[in-house]
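tokens incoming
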């Protein structure tokens, strides 16, 4: 029995003193391509940070996976 990937997203966290008390903000991008590489996702996060004038401080992959309860062929 193995997991079945249903959906995945990426959450980027950015740091900038202009963001008030916590100085961070997060953005989630949904419907991430299933074959996306960690290096590619890091490059996208870096590019977004540069465009916003922020520092990228974290990137978190969020996955939804199903657990098949009925075996195929039965």
């Amino acid at each position: 029995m193995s997991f079945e990937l249903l959906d995945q997203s990426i959450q980027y966290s950015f740091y900038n003193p202009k963001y008030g008390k916590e100085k961070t903000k997060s953005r989630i991008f949904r419907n991430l391509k299933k074959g996306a590489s960690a290096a590619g996702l890091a490059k996208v996060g870096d590019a977004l940070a540069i465009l916003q004038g922020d520092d990228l401080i974290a990137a978190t992959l969020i996955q939804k996976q199903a657990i098949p309860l009925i075996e195929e062929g039965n």
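note: The beta strands are 4-15, 24-29, 55-66.
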